[in-house]
């Protein structure tokens, strides 16, 4: 005897063979046949069926992004033409329940449930519970449908699909809301990135990553858009450089600094802030942090200059009092009043879980000022002090002050200064001896879980000499 699922499969195959019949059957098609029929039409790129199904979709959300492995312009056009049919219907006559076209790579369970691959009853209630909540940052009286998408832009120019969507959405702004919660630039754009935001609700963006070594000019031109992202929770900026033709244009640089920094006054919802190689922070850190309404969870300011006034503000800033993650790697502390870093740690003893002070040029006297506060950071799980100038005795003190930090799972320390000769090369015998002694010192206090002692780069094999629980050394010593 044929099972119900076999009859359903036969019905779907039959409909897919004749587009005209499939489209005419949509008005009477049982709800449970919509998802498998849609997926079959999607796999076969039957765009006429897809367009009609979008306009007749019986659920609140169509998570088509879960089916899109790669961008397909023709399928995207079919989706949007289906929305055009829906938009043209008068509200009182609409039979379609569709409110959200979800282009994100999420909601895979929707298709598994309706394909019978999940042990769940296929009902409208099950599906509706799995649909995403739609934020409506700017309610519109004429709004008919919402499009949700996340963008990861890894090419210098926009792909054809995104160019088409941008053109299409601009023509329908009164009837359309475009939500983009995650926006990432993985390349320096040759287009104007600010114009890309014309079709989005800027206040819907919660995560922004500029991970492409933008130049100062591009970032300044984009800055007004950044200021509109009032619900932004995560901001990652990686390496900003000055255009060659701007090096002598001090007025242009100062204008750019003001244009960018002033936008942070609007970003009072930030919880995660990562700034790497952002050179214009020097003497301006207070302008970045002072407007935050809630305490930050993660803060990374790396590979840049901070003034003593910046560090003084950071040690007192209300927004950093509950950090769980602090990374100041590559920030040089040689010229600072050294107690400031200790004061900052004193405020984080109850919350800090990750501390990274890699390549900060810390010296023995500066580490001594950190130790009392460090020993009280009871929640620490990870520490990194690699590439600092510490002697054997300072490292012994550092390890002794971590005695009560029971949660430490990953520890990274610099090789002591005594392992190097007069020209800075590692002396293998000294490296092994001192690292072994340090490890024995630590084991006399507590048993480490994962620990590494790392030297400067070896001039012979161009790798770092590493001593860990397995006593692994650089390859040139073997």
UniProtKB/TrEMBL annotation:
<keyword id="KW-0677">Repeat</keyword>
<protein>
    <submittedName>
        <fullName>PRAME family member 12-like</fullName>
    </submittedName>
</protein>
<keyword id="KW-0433">Leucine-rich repeat</keyword>
<comment type="similarity">
    <text>Belongs to the PRAME family.</text>
</comment>
<dbReference type="InterPro" id="IPR050694">
    <property type="entry name" value="LRRC14/PRAME"/>
</dbReference>
<dbReference type="InterPro" id="IPR026271">
    <property type="entry name" value="PRAME"/>
</dbReference>
<dbReference type="InterPro" id="IPR032675">
    <property type="entry name" value="LRR_dom_sf"/>
</dbReference>
């Amino acid at each position: 005897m044929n099972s119900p699922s076999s009859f359903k499969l036969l019905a779907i195959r039959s409909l897919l063979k004749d587009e005209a019949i499939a489209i005419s059957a949509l008005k009477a098609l049982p709800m449970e046949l919509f998802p498998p029929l849609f997926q079959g039409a999607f796999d076969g790129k039957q765009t006429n069926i897809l367009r009609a199904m979008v306009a007749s979709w019986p659920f609140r959300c169509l998570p088509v992004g879960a089916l899109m492995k790669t961008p397909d312009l023709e399928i995207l056009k079919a989706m949007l033409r289906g929305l055009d049919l829906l938009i043209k219907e008068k509200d009182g006559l609409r039979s379609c329940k569709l409110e959200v076209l979800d282009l994100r790579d999420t909601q895979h369970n929707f298709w598994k449930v309706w394909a019978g691959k999940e042990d769940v009853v296929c009902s409208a209630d099950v599906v509706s519970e799995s649909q995403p909540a739609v934020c409506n940052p700017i309610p519109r009286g004429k709004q008919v449908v919402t499009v949700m998408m996340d963008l990861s832009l890894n090419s210098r120019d926009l792909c054809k699909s995104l160019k088409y969507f941008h053109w299409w959405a601009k023509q329908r702004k009164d009837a359309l809301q475009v939500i983009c919660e995650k926006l990432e630039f993985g390349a320096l754009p040759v287009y104007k990135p600010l114009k890309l935001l014309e079709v989005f609700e800027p206040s819907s963006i919660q995560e922004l990553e500029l991970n492409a070594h933008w130049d100062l000019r591009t970032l300044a031109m984009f800055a007004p858009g950044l200021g509109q992202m009032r619900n932004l929770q995560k901001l990652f900026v990686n390496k900003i450089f000055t255009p060659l033709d701007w090096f002598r244009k001090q007025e242009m640089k100062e204008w750019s600094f003001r244009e960018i920094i002033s936008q942070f006054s609007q970003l009072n919802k930030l919880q995660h802030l990562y700034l790497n190689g952002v050179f214009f922070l020097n003497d301006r850190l207070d302008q970045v942090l002072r407007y935050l309404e809630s305490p930050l969870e993660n803060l990374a300011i790396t590979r840049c200059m901070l003034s003593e006034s910046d560090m003084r503000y950071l040690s007192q800033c209300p927004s950093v009092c509950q950090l769980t993650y602090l990374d100041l790697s590559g920030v040089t502390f040689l010229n600072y009043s050294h107690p400031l870093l200790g004061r900052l740690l004193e405020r984080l003893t109850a919350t800090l879980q990750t501390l990274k002070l890699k390549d900060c040029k810390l010296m023995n006297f500066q580490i001594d000022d950190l130790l009392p506060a460090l020993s009280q950071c009871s929640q620490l799980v990870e520490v990194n002090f690699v590439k600092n100038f510490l002697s054997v005795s300072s490292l012994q003190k550092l390890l002794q002050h971590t005695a009560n930090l029971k949660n430490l799972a990953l520890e990274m320390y610099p090789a002591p200064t005594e392992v190097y000769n007069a020209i800075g090369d590692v002396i293998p015998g000294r490296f092994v001896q001192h690292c072994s002694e340090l490890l024995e010192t630590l084991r006399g206090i507590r048993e480490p879980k994962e620990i590494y002692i790392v030297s400067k780069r070896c001039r012979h094999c161009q790798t770092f000499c590493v001593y860990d629980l397995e006593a692994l050394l650089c390859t040139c010593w073997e």
